Amino acid sequence: MRTAKISRKTKETDISAILSLDGGECEISTGIGFFDHMLTAFAVHGGFGLKLKVKGDLEVDGHHTVEDTGIVLGQAFSKALGDKSGIARYGSFYVPMDEALALCVVDVSGRPYLVFDDVFDGQMIGGLDSSLIVEFLRAFAFNAGITLHINVMYGKNAHHMAEAVFKSLGHALKAACAITGSDVLSTKGVL
Predict the structure, then answer these.
(1) Global confidence as pTM
(2) Which EC number(s) does UniProt give (predicted)?
(3) Structural domains in the chain?
(4) 5 to each of 54, 77, 92, 146, 168, how far by Cα in Å?
């Protein structure tokens, strides 16, 4: 089973994560209810097992909690994939969420990059400052070593737009991580 366990403790956060790319239980506690909801949507739609416990300095704000969660989850994702032998490498997925539509395209390449036209204006969605969504995505992409393109094509309700982002990310990564052979999918022979 492709599983990784990562722990990270700083003066601002204390995070432990167990990620299984091949399924399992989902138990998420970050102290930010809406963020828990988004990470649960990501894991469920990706078919991932995810146990995540985060203690952050929420008395300051949610920034360190959200960004550091992206760092740890990205590191776990990279570790669980190992040398990436046999995976499809690429994945893409559209998710409609009522009036909103998001597209996620991913390359599990070892070359981190994020393209995200941040449509969120910093309004609160539940307890999550929506401007932190890009911080999570950047930290995740760079620590996972993936090229990540996400486009919220349209939408009006911030909850729906955010949920479409996280669900499309889960589905696209599920496709990219699918075992399709035994070799590394690269003309270089290595990712």
Answers:
(1) 0.94
(2) 4.2.1.19
(3) 3-177 (3.30.230.40)
(4) 14, 9, 26, 19, 24
